[in-house]
Design goal:
This protein is 16% helix and 47% strand. It is an alpha+beta fold.
Length: 174
């Protein structure tokens, strides 16, 4: 099994060969091959059907770190098919800012979140907001689900100007 994890933009395509596209590719860290393998519904050496391949592609496309996924046979020898998994990453860094004023009260906030931090499939995020009553800092980490075991681990921390709130969630389906 081969993993071909492609960058956000294809600079071989003339339409995607501008300076901004190349800069985005340079800033982006590609999804690691181990992350792609972890999301497959089959392992090397297992019997694979067209239906299983199509379901794997559908599930992987529904993940927000991939723009496109295709699983194709690339070789055949001694009754064994070689498969190549081709993924095309998407931009996952999400910055945000807000400011408002209503009734003489100011509200401000900023957010920075990455749903594929360092190509690991892990979501990390931080935000800060303030209003007349409190300041809130929010830190979040979410481990990527593995389709064979649809578990999700989540860590949340909320330092507030008037206290603190923390949460750890570990979910394992039965």
């Amino acid at each position: 099994m081969r993993i071909d994890n492609r960058n956000i933009f294809d600079v071989a395509n003339e339409k995607e060969n501008g300076i901004l596209y190349r800069a985005a590719n340079a800033l982006h860290i590609r999804t690691r091959a181990a992350v792609v393998r972890r999301q497959l519904l089959f392992k090397p050496g297992e019997r694979v059907t067209v239906r299983l391949i199509e379901e794997t592609e559908r599930l992987m496309r529904s993940n927000r770190i991939f723009y496109d996924v295709s699983i194709v046979p690339v070789g055949y020898r001694d009754g064994v098919v070689d498969i190549e998994v081709r993924t095309h990453d998407t931009w996952t860094l999400e910055p945000g800012a807000s400011a408002s004023r209503a009734g003489g009260t100011n509200k401000t906030g900023f957010t920075l979140r990455d749903t594929n931090a360092f190509g690991t499939g892990i979501l990390i995020g931080a935000s800060r907001s303030s209003d007349a009553d409190r300041q809130r800092n929010h830190v979040q980490g979410l481990a990527a689900p593995r389709f064979r075991r649809l578990d999700r681990d989540r860590l949340l921390a909320f330092p507030l100007s008037d206290g603190q709130s923390n949460a750890l969630s570990i979910v394992r389906p039965f």
